[in-house]
Amino acid sequence: MSKKENDTNKLPTKVFSQRESLITELLEVKHFKILKHLFITLLFGYIARDIVRALSSAKDVNFGFTTIRIGFKNFHYALACWIVLFGISLLVYVLFRCWALWRTELYPKSMFTKVWDTIFLFLIALYYVVCLFIFPLLWMKSLHLGLASFLALLSENARLLMKSHAFIRTNAPDVITYKPHSENPLDLPTLSNYVYFSFAPTLVYRKEYPRTENVVIKKALLDFLEVFCIIWLESYIVESFLLKPFSHVGKLKIDWIDIAVTVTENSIAGGLLMLANFYQVLHAWCNAFANLLRFADRRFYEDWWTSTNYSAYFRHWNIVVHDWLYEYVYRDFYHYLIPNNKTAAKYMVFLISALMHEQIIGFSTGYFLPVVFVQFFGLGTHFTFIQTKHPMCNVFLLYSLALGNSINLSMHAIEYYARVNCPYPDRENSSKLLPRLITLDCV
């Protein structure tokens, strides 16, 4: 990641430059393009196998479409909620601008300035609480969204919240340090700056970003087409490998040995889903918006697949989120909240990231099953202290990622079927939030 030093005592900050995505560069090499063709060939092989099996047993073939229909239930409600969320994020810009302009009319150290700052901070904190807890609770109780619809809505909710925080955190210091009687007017971001940032494939705010010369609509459409194709691919993998083995949960008692065997067998499916989700979100989706908005810095990830330790993997897997965590969590904790303590700042980064993952998954599923939290904060954080460079460590890391994804998906599949096949409608709402894996009901 390209960065620069502000001074000798401060951590470097993000610098944007014109760069292509790594896979885009690699696909220029015909030998690497063959790997993509081999993956598609493997997929066709699985489809042909299922067609032959279905014809020989006279059963219907769904090919993941049932999972898509159930997962994206009431997606139009989710889209309406997103419009509301985006409107609220625009109000955040209006609130910030009002606070900044009125603050310039007050004396910097007066009581009125402190009161005005306190009101602004209270309203921003209220915005965070409403978006993180109040809205998700209301949506969970009233909209009856499918799992994919809810995950998409809450992911967008988190994205807009992170963008709003980045905008305020970047511009607020300029307002606070501005001298009211200065000859130079306060240079505030325009609404067009804020709207562009809202859709740009980055979470780090800047007034200007490097731009390409032209909008490439054809490439953007191809990227969106890949996104929709991968949605189908993911649903096919989930339906074929992750749902069928656990469909009897809640009807029959399931043994933990059987669960361990199935989880191990599903590690290949877990790895495929991890790769599909990576390509879908961090390559196709981000590049689609980059092509439409002429956003030139398209290094949304690095070569994480060559990592030999978890520290390198976490830095390279998702540059978009990593940059936000570095700029607005790690640096702030290191400079202001826990000065000069990089270990404590690292723990806070992993804690906040793990909690956000659990907030999205927990509200989407409607129960508390902290598998991701344990994997991410409990294990992943401590694995980053193990610095290894041996090539075989890369094999271990890749397999552990696939197995970890299989564990996460399998546990949620078990919980889903336990609730479908063994409901208990007469209990209080608090017990419904607890998973069957913890209460040992129906499993």
TrEMBL record:
Q: Name one GO biological process term.
A: cholesterol metabolic process
State if Nucleotide-binding is listed as a keyword.
Answer: no
GO molecular function terms attached to this record: O-acyltransferase activity
| Signal peptide residues on this chain, from the entry's feature table | none
Q: What are the TM regions of this chain, as residue ranges?
A: 38-55, 75-96, 116-139, 367-386
Q: Which Pfam families match?
A: MBOAT
Q: What are the positions of the active site? A: H357
Quote the subcellular location field of this record.
Answer: Endoplasmic reticulum membrane
Keyword field: Acyltransferase, Endoplasmic reticulum, Membrane, Transferase, Transmembrane, Transmembrane helix
Record's keyword annotation contains tRNA-binding: no
A GO term from the CC aspect = endoplasmic reticulum membrane
InterPro entries noted in UniProt = MBOAT_fam (IPR004299), Oat_ACAT_DAG_ARE (IPR014371)
Lipid bilayer topology? Multi-pass membrane protein
Q: Which family does it belong to?
A: Belongs to the membrane-bound acyltransferase family. Sterol o-acyltransferase subfamily.
Record-given protein name: O-acyltransferase
Q: Which organism is this protein's natural source?
A: Oryctes borbonicus
